[in-house]
Backbone:
């Protein structure tokens, strides 16, 4: 039994619940052979991958649902071996080059050329080109992006590329210039409610408007999250009645605890305590940016208006330093100390020279 | 691997497959065939045209922003010099998708460079080509070559200059090491000016039988900023879209903006207004016309924008234009905003979190404007 998120995932453009104009546009693009390279972007959980799968199905028919996972071995220029998972059907292939870290260029170079120089197996395929879906395209290194450029032009007659990314900011201009940009906005609360109602109907139970709305709002436009929470709650209390307690993931609760600690006390001892908590979070592979943002969001909710902007300012500054720098923990800590000193200064007017 | 059957030979596969033109994306279909088709780069074309008759060619360096005709020009020139039959033996094209490390420079490039040009085979299409006695090595996207690899090229360029000419193509001329750049004649490719873009687009539209209004053309020009490839792609998508209904609906400037990922005016205007930068706009959404009262309201606005999935750089660009060109905002306030725009742009380029930096920008504009 698969999860609702997977089980009720629409398979065709017609089945998509929201952004109908976009679906229409995609259908008209898929109907013809001059289908362009595309770049899908938008926040996570907005349904980009589902939409891409629907486009593939629209392009080639049911065959794109028969997926196979392969492990491919690539050789880096320094003769190191890389194992990469590829998902493929007869008509398309899906890769996540960021799995290879800084060797992503090797994968792009090798795999794309190989695909570009082969033909459709299925001679009755509706299109003579094959599609390469590249996930997390915004994490591609510059070299890997450069490697895509001429490939995208040269092999256009038998290959199309679909890039999937959270944002276009990190893609180099020549790549954007070669793609049709497709923005997939997060669904609104109402749209999420509609999807949940649809699921409830299929599962044959009634869903109160109130409950649906609460779950939808909590998800912040992340449909995947909404459906997961929805299913979990339904397991707990089948009629979804009474006050809902939407369980937060552990790491989030933990971050909130850290935020509360920062607001409660500002002292060297407290910094040490916070530090060990930050290590704990990092060791559980919570991305440092997520840690910083979650803590900051919570802190600003509990401090005076006049401090809020400053706290977010330093969050932005230290997040950037964290990216450019190497030791994540240094910058997280620095931000914590900064916030504590801002807070203390605000309350007791302590002289802050030497902290700026 | 069962996925795709390899073709009989690599050679057959790499040979450009001639596709039915109607199925080709327009950017490829309307790629200039001769250097005279290249729009807007008059100076470059004039110089290159002379090389067609003089059979003398310097090493060259083409540089300029994406979609301005660099690759097209050199390919067209090479084809006009050698014709289809000699192209293969006389021209070596390497781009960023090829391995171009130092070892390749030493082997493959050097080997090709030192070969004596093969005698001209007779043109099968009955035309005569100048077919000068040298080969051309095109290093496209050369800015992605490492410094070492570039350094290794220096000697080769000099040693075999008599029989081999190089053409380096790149976006950023500063990424080419000086000793290489100084060995080349440089050609700058400008972003296409509005008139050339307009006439090129009009030409494509006419050939493809799509009616386009002047407003649509100017929307294409303003969204593509001198990148002709981008404007042609937009035009094609828009025309697909308009043909998806029966009868086709005319293309509107709003279609183009949507395709180009531009934040719609009402959205950006309402954002600016909420930050205290007032913009008169009747089409703004209802809650848009008021200034945010506090931090939480600004944050809510930013989160809304991010949920819509607009790209941070796009938001930044449009907000920047709005603020800097604002008719009544005081100059010192604009100056403060300019500072944060610059910082945010740098941060985004360094890969910083988009939401944090749009919020930072918003808060500082809010503060400056109040
Ligand atoms: N000056 C131009 N005249 C006519 N068509 C052009 C011109 N510039 C670009 N185009 C159109 O844009 C397409 C891409 O151009 P081209 O490949 O030459 O760009 P480029 O300068 O090499 O860009 P990049 O830096 O991204 O590699 C061409 O196929 C053609 O349709
Ligand atoms: Mg090019």
Residues:
């Amino acid at each position: 039994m698969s999860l609702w998120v997977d089980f009720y995932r629409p398979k065709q453009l017609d089945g998509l619940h929201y952004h109908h104009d976009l679906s229409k546009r995609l259908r008209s693009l898929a109907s013809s052979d001059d289908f362009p390279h595309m770049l899908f972007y938008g926040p996570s959980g907005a349904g980009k991958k589902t939409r891409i799968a629907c486009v593939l199905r629209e392009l080639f028919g049911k065959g794109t649902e028969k997926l196979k996972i392969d492990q491919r071995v690539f050789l880096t220029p320094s003769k190191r071996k890389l194992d990469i998972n590829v998902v493929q059907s007869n008509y398309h292939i899906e890769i996540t080059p960021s799995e290879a870290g800084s060797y992503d260029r090797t994968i792009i170079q090798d795999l794309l050329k190989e695909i570009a120089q082969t033909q459709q197996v299925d001679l009755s395929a509706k299109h003579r080109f094959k599609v390469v879906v590249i996930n997390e395209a915004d994490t591609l290194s510059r070299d890997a992006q450069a490697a895509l450029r001429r490939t995208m032009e040269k092999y256009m007659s038998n290959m199309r590329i679909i890039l999937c990314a959270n944002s276009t900011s990190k893609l180099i201009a020549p790549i954007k210039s070669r793609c049709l940009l497709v923005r997939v906005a997060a669904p609104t609360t109402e749209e999420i409610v509609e999807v949940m109602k649809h699921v409830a109907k299929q599962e044959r139970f009634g869903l109160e408007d109130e409950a649906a709305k609460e779950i939808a709002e909590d998800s912040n436009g992340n449909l995947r999250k909404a459906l997961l929470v929805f299913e979990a709650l339904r397991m707990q209390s089948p009629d979804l009645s009474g006050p809902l307690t939407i369980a937060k993931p552990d790491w989030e609760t933990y971050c909130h605890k850290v935020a509360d600690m920062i607001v409660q006390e500002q002292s060297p001892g407290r910094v040490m305590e916070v530090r060990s908590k930050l290590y704990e979070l990092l060791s559980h592979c919570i991305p440092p940016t997520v840690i910083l943002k979650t803590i900051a969001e919570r802190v600003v909710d509990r401090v005076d208006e006049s401090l809020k902007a400053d706290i977010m300012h330093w969050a932005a500054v230290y997040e950037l330093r964290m990216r450019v720098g190497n030791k994540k923990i240094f910058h997280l800590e620095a931000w914590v100390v900064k916030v504590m000193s801002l807070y203390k200064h605000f309350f007791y007017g302590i002289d802050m020279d030497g902290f700026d | 691997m069962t996925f795709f059957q390899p073709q009989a030979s690599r050679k057959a596969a790499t040979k450009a497959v001639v596709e039915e033109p109607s199925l080709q994306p327009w950017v490829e279909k309307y790629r200039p065939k001769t250097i005279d088709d290249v729009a807007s780069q008059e100076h470059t074309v004039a110089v290159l045209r002379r090389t067609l008759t003089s059979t003398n060619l310097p090493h060259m360096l083409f540089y300029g922003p994406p979609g301005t005709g660099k690759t097209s020009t050199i390919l067209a020139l090479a084809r006009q010099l050698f014709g289809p039959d000699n192209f293969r033996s006389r021209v070596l094209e390497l781009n960023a998708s090829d391995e171009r490390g130092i070892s390749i420079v030493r082997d493959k490039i050097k080997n090709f460079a030192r070969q004596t040009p093969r005698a001209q085979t007779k043109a099968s299409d009955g035309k005569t080509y100048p077919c000068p006695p040298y080969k051309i090595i095109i290093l496209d996207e050369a800015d992605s070559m490492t410094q070492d690899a570039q350094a290794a090229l220096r000697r080769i360029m000099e040693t075999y200059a008599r029989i081999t000419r190089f053409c380096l193509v790149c976006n950023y001329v500063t990424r080419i090491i000086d000793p290489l750049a100084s060995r080349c004649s440089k050609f700058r490719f400008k972003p296409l000016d509005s008139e050339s873009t307009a006439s090129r687009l009009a030409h494509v539209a006419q050939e493809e039988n799509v009616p386009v209004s002047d407003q649509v053309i100017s929307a294409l020009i303003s969204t593509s900023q001198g990148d002709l490839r981008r404007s042609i792609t937009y035009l094609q998508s828009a025309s697909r879209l308009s043909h998806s209904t029966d009868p086709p609906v005319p293309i509107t400037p709003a279609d183009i903006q949507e395709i180009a990922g531009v934040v719609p005016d009402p959205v950006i205007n309402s954002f600016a207004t909420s930050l205290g930068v007032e913009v008169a706009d009747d089409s703004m959404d209802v809650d848009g016309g008021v200034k945010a009262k506090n931090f939480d309201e600004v944050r809510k606005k930013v989160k809304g924008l991010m949920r819509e999935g607009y790209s941070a750089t796009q938001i930044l660009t449009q907000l920047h234009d709005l603020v800097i060109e604002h008719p009544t905002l005081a100059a010192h306030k604009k100056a403060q905003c300019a500072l944060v725009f610059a910082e945010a742009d740098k941060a985004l380029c360094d890969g910083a979190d988009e939401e944090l930096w749009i919020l930072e920008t918003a808060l500082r504009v809010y503060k400056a404007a109040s």
Remarks:
- The two ends of chain B are 64 Å apart (CA to CA).
- The pocket of magnesium ion (ligand 2) is lined by residues B 70-71, 140 (CB under 6 Å).
- The domain at 9-188 of chain B is CATH 3.40.50.300 (Rossmann fold).
- Chain B touches chain A through 76 residues (CB under 8 Å).
